[in-house]
Design a protein that fits this description.
Elements: E1 3-6, H1 12-23, E2 27-32, H2 36-49, E3 52-57, H3 63-77, E4 82-85, H4 102-128, E5 134-139, H5 152-172, E6 177-184, H6 190-193, H7 196-204, H8 216-227, E7 237-241
Parallel strand pairs: 1-2, 1-4, 2-3, 4-5, 5-6, 6-7
The chain binds NADP nicotinamide-adenine-dinucleotide phosphate.
NADP nicotinamide-adenine-dinucleotide phosphate (NAP) binds near residues 8, 9, 13, 59 and 187.
């Protein structure tokens, strides 16, 4: 079976993606930044689902770690057929854009945008050397278009992922490498744990037409569907997995 590198798959959405790929028998590189035990737990869950998995530490914001991730993947199976750019962080403090500082901006852009951009560049170069090529999926957010004035850095990083999707999709289309963007809505993970009560209320009040929290499995199922290669005449495509949040409803 082919090999997928899923960044930030020790927990949350990435873990949901890794398990769904495992159900289709993929070899999954479970990347983590600091939480090795969680990564090993995810590997066990991938294997239980029917796939193969290894845990590889690496901070996507560091060039040497991105190379380490690719090297470890190739050392394991000799090829990479799917890159899922999922790793991402929220600002440590939600601060109004008139107050928010440059350190937070730099960190969010480096982890959420620069990291995936250059990891994609490296992986695309590798895929071009493989006869079977591959696919790339970027996990952005409804924050790519919904303005939250208390986390401008996060919104800009996710909007940037939208353009990154278009750029790599356009560049790689002739080479038979498809690039997609999955935009999650509000998903129950550690990232949203701190604002759970606020979102419980907003969801009950109708934030999205489908009135429930999204689960990591919801994103995983969308990624799994794309990974099967069933969208061969689509690239640069955005798939909203958000309970219908993106619709304008009157
Ligand atoms: P999460 O629960 O906080 O998990 C984050 C994952 O990313 C962990 O596996 C973490 O590894 C890893 N990670 C963090 N920084 C990293 C780095 N520099 N290099 C490599 N891995 C790193 O987050 P989540 O909610 O699953 O979010 C996953 C993605 O979905 C993010 O890009 C996020 O912006 C996006 N998203 C989330 C939501 C939501 O509602 N949750 C909505 C829209 C979009 P460790 O375990 O080692 O710390």
């Amino acid at each position: 079976m082919p090999t997928a590198l899923v960044t930030g798959s020790s927990r949350g959405i990435g873990r949901g993606i890794a398990i769904q790929l495992g159900e289709d028998g993929w070899h999954v590189v479970v990347n983590y930044c600091g939480n090795q035990q969680a990564a090993e737990d995810t590997c066990a869950a991938v294997v239980a689902a029917g796939g193969q998995a290894i845990a590889v530490q690496g901070d996507v914001s560091k060039a040497e770690d991105r190379q380490k991730l690719l090297d470890a993947t190739l050392e394991w199976t000799g090829a990479i057929e799917l890159l899922v750019n999922n790793a991402g962080i929220a600002p440590s403090v939600r601060a109004d854009i008139l107050e928010a500082d440059e350190d937070s901006f730099d960190k969010l852009i480096t982890v959420n945008l620069k990291g995936p951009y250059f990891l994609t560049q490296a992986v695309a170069r590798q895929m071009l050397q493989q006869p079977q090529r591959g696919q790339i999926i970027n996990i952005s957010s409804l924050s790519a278009y919904a303005a939250s004035v208390n986390r401008g850095d996060y919104c800009i990083s996710k909007a940037g992922l939208g353009m990154m999707t278009s750029l790599f999709a356009a560049r790689l289309a002739d080479d038979d490498i498809r690039v997609y963007e999955v935009r999650p809505g509000v998903i129950a993970t550690d990232m949203t744990g701190a604002v759970k009560e606020k979102y419980d209320r907003l969801i009950a009040e109708g934030l999205s037409p489908i009135k429930r929290w999204g689960q990591p499995e919801d994103i995983g199922r969308a990624v799994r569907a794309i990974a099967r290669g069933d969208f061969p005449f689509s690239t640069g495509e955005v798939i909203n997995v958000d309970g219908g949040f993106h619709m304008k409803v009157l």
